[in-house]
Write the structure tokens for this entry.
Amino acid sequence: MTPVQRTVTKTLIALLMMVGFTIALVPLYDVFCQITGLNGKSASQPRAVVSGEVDESRYVTVQFITRTGSGLPWRLEALNRQVRVHPGQAYEVRFAFVNHGKTASRGRAVPSVSPSEASLHLRKVTCFCFQEQRLEAGEKLELPMMFQLSSDLPEGIHTVTLAYTLYPVAEGPVANNKSTSMQGGDA
Amino acid sequence: MAPNLPPKAPLEHSQSVAGSPAAHEEEHHYRSGPLRWLLTTNHKEIGTLYLIFSLSMFLIGGVMALVVRLELFQPGLQMVQPEFFNQMTTMHGLIMVFGAVMPAFVGLANWMVPLQIGAPDMALPRLNNFSFWLLPIAFTLLLATLLMPGGGPNFGWTFYAPLSTTYAPPSTTFFIFALHMAGISSILGAINIIATILNLRAPGMRLMDMTLFVWTWLITAFLLIAVMPVLAGVITMMLLDINFGTSFFNAAGGGDPVLFQHLFWFFGHPEVYIMILPAFGIVSVIVPTFARKRLFGYASMVYATASIAILSFLVWAHHMFAVGLPLVAELFFMYTTMLIAVPTGVKVFNWITTLFRGSITFETPMLFALAFIVLFTIGGFSGLMLAIAPADFQYHDTYFVVAHFHYVLVPGAVFSIMAAVYYWLPKWTGHYPDERIGRWHFWLSVIGVNLLFFPMHFAGLAGMPRRIPDYALQFADFNMASSIGGFLFGFSQLLFVWVIVKCVRGGAKAPAKAWEGASDLEWTLPSPAPLHTFETPPDLRGFKFH
């Protein structure tokens, strides 16, 4: 091997390592966010309520915001826009889905938690966001969401905002909770 | 300067090349006509091709900027539709970054790196040809998207998802393909430059003997190897999201749009240093020549360049302060960003100290290099302001950011390229560029560029947002001044074209050592440099470097 060939080989190896690193960044980012909760995603699976002491000395305001993404003639409404809860106590709130379209369609509500530090302390027992919804034309559907803020919620957090964005789901074979995503992110 | 002159060996060598069989070689190896340019493997010809290509892209991207400035001359919508305005801002950025500045530096490297290290050519001449010819194809494709249904890219040069995926025009797939080709071209160019610098230095030239231009390009080439794959990865993910139903950046399918920004800026911040490090090298070569002194702090310049390159991987999220980072991350990226001011300050200090008590003359290349030092530093200071995370919440996405990065890119990178062209034109063509037109070009450019970009600071601090074709009435005066400056700067570039054409066709004959204070190896070769130089490596043992 000439010296030039040796340099080029080393450079190509470095290049391939960077390609591998780039591909690895996507799952690494997801794992990092799952552990730290930094991107404000809540768990995609139901989690059991932790029975423990309820911190009655503290109130946390939990707000619910809903948004309809483009391409879906639905309306999502939080029937309880804001609740005051004690950390450690389980609560149930209700959401209403309405399909204003002329045909049946499917959609999915994707949650986001703000501040993102709270997402690790939010435990959802039941949530409509764990699966897709299918609504006939004009159908109205009321669904519950049961959650608990664990009592180790950091002291500095007084308000937790949960935003749900509705996205259309293409008609096709019914996808389960894993959705059609080819990537490891959790919704 | 006499002691700095090389010993006999290189001179004798170059004269023998010059006097010898150039004509005889023409007969043997060279085709004539366009095929010669298509198939050339000569580093000087490929360098020329790169420079001509980047000049044409600079003019095309400049026309797009003028469309933007024309629309922003007055509040309200006069000239173009908002959709077209968005395509103009996007294409202007893409073409200037990937089509003008980067290829210009690669062209300068092609021409000058072999001459400055005493190599006969680039290490991989055929690959060199391939990396160049990818570019015209890539940019023809990119420009062609403007004519496609739905128009060209309209999501800003940073192509944030989901603007560039869910909401993108159908031509985005072509944009991705074009960017892939430009990226491959950059990677191959970088491999070639690394292989050349590490292996083809003339005997007796150690790494710490190389000129700063060669050093900065070596470090830049490593940056390219490190981050171009990230760009390729992120646009491939966009391609998959758009055409194959994946959800890397689509929240509906479990992806995360913020991931796009992290990946993009992990590429993007080193990328902005790719566009400035060779400029540092050029200025570090020109300033000592016209100050007639050795460069102050050679070793610290090398280490400063390397530190800037390493730090560039640790600051990417300062582009994303407003995205909702946790406090720890805001502080981390704020401090690492400010840290970059230290090695950059070392460089500016060294340039000024080189000038101190120098015997300075103000030829056109020196004028551009001095303007670079002053105006780039202004851009650096506004960068420090933007680095302050809490202040950035105010500045984010305003014209203050536009002013900042145009100050570092236009009177920064672009001025350094112009300085390099004026500096090396005698070596390339054998004629001095016309000093009178050169000065007119310089002064009109420097006035135009400041009139163009300085008011943008104020418009931005007052809250004018970027990338919007209309604005509130209170910004009218700033914008009118900017537009006048833009047209002044834009049209004075025609003088630049005139100088180059005139210099290629004739002018005062330049000797081998065209500038009195020049001491690098290329000035031991005759002007114009013959097609083949250093075919047998010059023996540089005993050569007094810088």
Notes: The domain at 27-506 of chain B is CATH 1.20.210.10 (Cytochrome C Oxidase; Chain A). Chain B has one domain: 27-506.
